[in-house]
């Protein structure tokens, strides 16, 4: 099965201002005569000349690898926003993210102001076993102060081979001064699925897929089986939460959708010059019972999340609830290069079972419910806001169907919940999981 990643979404903005000053004619190299540019790759001659001039004549010494890497990055920047060059360190991080395994502490951190704060330790990780807590402030790593340090550098210092030690200096409420913790790194395995029973009497279960990585489908199956065991009965309704899920592996998105479908198309992909689309179809084996489903989405739901939501929507299997999704309808493949770097290249567009392209448009929910708790996500950029994004060839022909809008309450319900989208989803399941009727997909 296809192992191509449907890459996580990153919105990167850049501006450049260039000017010439103090240019001396004595230091301007003469351009070589023009060559016949009708032949393929003749432009590489120009690149080689420029590279040689910079290496030999630039005022300071520069490494050839840095110049070549920079040139490749510039080349890829001319393509769509999801094609990029991954330097070796960045490629290793991508592999860690998609595998769900890495050597380190198992510690999620964030920068708040000028401080590095623990968001949460991964369950059964060295960080959790050492007693680190959400809200702890990391002041030093191996004696080096991390205040004002870039988050990527902090994470890099914490990671390392299993069995090696790292010393963290931690400050938390109640401490008079920072405390040092020596932690032995280990192989950390993260879970991409969280779950809980939201209404035992009604048999209603909530499962959140945070990212599509290796074993996500198996982790979701285990979550559903564990929920059945906890309730001592079959599931009667499921909320599948794909909010703020940026994507991941295409094959895992297909498997998750397949878990709830018995037949029909899940997704098709079409690349340049491809004779026929590649079509992924559902199989009856290991399919969940046909209980009602509501899928939660928002602006942060992208790529692989949109594949799952689109398949379940077109097949009439689930009600999609939330807000418009990100709108990334392209597939990337990663090509590993000989020096440990990699090329992430957009190679195809994908289509829902009804052959809808969600590129630029996203998935329109059946029921739109604003989420006060997720307002920051809703205000973030969508695919159509990114430079050089691919255009939707269906845009002038096919517009999203008008949704049924449900306004979010201005204040949390009396239960104290701050998640109006989840509240509405549970209400729908209690009512039988029905919203505005949709035609089933003819696949």
Structure notes:
This protein is an alpha+beta fold and 443 residues long. It is 23% helix and 24% strand. It is built from 10 helices and 22 strands. The chain has a 7-stranded mixed β-sheet with strand order 11-12-13-17-18-21-22, with helices on both faces. The longest helix is centred in the middle third of the chain and has 16 residues. The two termini are 21 Å apart.
Question: Which helices and strands appear, and what pairs or packs with what?
Answer:
Elements: E1 5-6, H1 43-57, H2 64-76, E2 84-86, H3 88-99, E3 101-104, E4 107-112, E5 115-121, H4 126-129, E6 137-141, E7 144-145, H5 151-158, E8 165-171, E9 179-184, E10 186-189, E11 193-199, E12 204-209, H6 216-231, E13 237-241, E14 248-249, H7 250-258, E15 265-270, E16 278-281, E17 293-297, H8 304-314, E18 319-322, E19 330-336, E20 342-351, E21 367-369, H9 375-378, E22 404-406, H10 420-430
Parallel strand pairs: 12-13, 13-17, 17-18, 18-21, 21-22
Antiparallel strand pairs: 1-14, 2-20, 3-10, 4-5, 5-6, 6-7, 6-8, 8-9, 11-12, 15-16, 15-20, 19-20
Helix pairs in contact: 7-8
Short description:
The protein is α+β, with helices and mostly antiparallel strands and 443 residues long. It is globular and about 75 Å long. The chain starts with a strand and ends in a 13-residue tail after the last helix.
Keywords, please?
alpha+beta, 6-stranded antiparallel sheet, Pdz3 Domain, disordered C terminus, 23% helix, single chain, 7-stranded mixed sheet, 2-enoyl-CoA Hydratase, Chain A, domain 1, 443 residues
